[in-house]
């Protein structure tokens, strides 16, 4: 009897709400890009008009974004874009360093010539975007290169873990993309060379230093802004 009730309950589980998810994703991207700035008050009616939807999916999306740490909900005041603390950024980027170090090691063990060629294409896109001062392209190229390195390694569990932190990494990285990127893309070049050589130890060490420098640089910038 209990088994039948359980099975019946399972059939009644609500289906995913694609509109809510789409609105949540759209708002997260606006936060990542800086179109919605840290601390900004989020007005449901304005967001609904901007996204061309009703207020209900916006309200549901804000609840989800609050759960995921993108938005703060303040009683009687409303919703505000979360202001990341230095500790939050340091923790997230520290985890990223561990995951992507392993990712680079795996890539060096599994990369084929066509993978190396594709990595150099991402590298060139980043260098071109840097020269043009195109921040959106710069961040996109950086994300694509790191994501591709993970895919080359072929570890699906690792890829899933990295995907969980990658969006917030983009959020933290965007404000420093142009100032950090000259040295960052030089580091990428050395990383690709190590992967091409099939040297996991060297690739892992370059990636570890690369991601750790981003964490340190981001913290220094945040401290400077806070003291201004």
Q: How does this model look, in words?
A:
This protein is mainly α. Helix content is 78%, strand content 4%. The protein is built from ten helices and three strands, in the order ααβααββαααααα. The chain has a three-stranded antiparallel β-sheet. Strand 2 and strand 3 form a beta hairpin. Helix 2 packs across helix 4, helix 6 packs antiparallel against helix 7 and helix 9 packs antiparallel against helix 10. It is elongated. The protein starts with a helix and ends with a helix. The N terminus and C terminus are likely disordered.
| Tertiary shape | elongated
Ends distance: 67 Å
Order of strands, main sheet, comes to 1-3-2
Q: Give average pLDDT, whole number.
A: 86
What letter string, H or E per element, gives the SSE order?
Answer: HHEHHEEHHHHHH
What is the count of DSSP helices, taking H or I runs of 4+ residues? 10
Radius of gyration: 20 Å
Oligomer: single chain
E-strand count: 3
Let me know the largest β-sheet.
3 strands, antiparallel
User: What percentage of residues falls in helices of 4 or more residues?
Assistant: over 70%
Beta percentage is: under 5%
Structural class given helices, strands, pairing? mainly alpha
Uncertain ranges: 1-15, 223-228
List the helices and strands and how they pair.
Blueprint: H1 2-11, H2 18-33, E1 41-42, H3 44-51, H4 55-67, E2 71-74, E3 78-81, H5 86-110, H6 113-132, H7 135-153, H8 156-173, H9 177-197, H10 200-227
Antiparallel strand pairs: 1-3, 2-3
């Amino acid at each position: 009897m209990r088994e039948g009730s359980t099975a019946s309950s399972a059939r009644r589980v609500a289906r995913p709400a694609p509109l809510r998810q789409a609105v949540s994703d759209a708002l997260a991207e606006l936060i990542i890009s800086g179109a919605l700035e840290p601390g900004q008050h989020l007005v449901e009616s304005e967001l609904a008009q901007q996204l061309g939807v009703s207020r209900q999916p916006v309200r549901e999306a804000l609840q989800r974004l609050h759960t995921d740490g993108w938005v703060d909900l303040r009683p009687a005041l409303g919703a505000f874009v979360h202001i990341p603390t230095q500790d939050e950024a340091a923790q997230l980027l520290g985890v990223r360093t561990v995951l992507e170090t392993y990712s680079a090691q795996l890539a060096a063990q599994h990369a084929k010539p066509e993978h190396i060629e594709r990595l150099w294409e991402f590298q060139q896109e980043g260098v071109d975007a840097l020269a043009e001062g195109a921040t959106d392209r710069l961040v996109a190229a950086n994300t694509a290169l790191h994501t591709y390195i993970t895919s080359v390694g072929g570890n699906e569990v690792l890829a899933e873990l990295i995907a969980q932190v990658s969006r917030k990494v983009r959020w933290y990285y965007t404000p420093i993309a142009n100032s950090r990127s000259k040295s960052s893309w030089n580091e990428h070049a050395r990383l690709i060379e190590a992967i091409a050589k099939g040297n996991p130890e060297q690739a892992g060490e370059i990636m570890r230093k690369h991601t750790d420098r981003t964490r340190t640089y981001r913290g220094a910038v945040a401290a400077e802004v806070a003291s201004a």
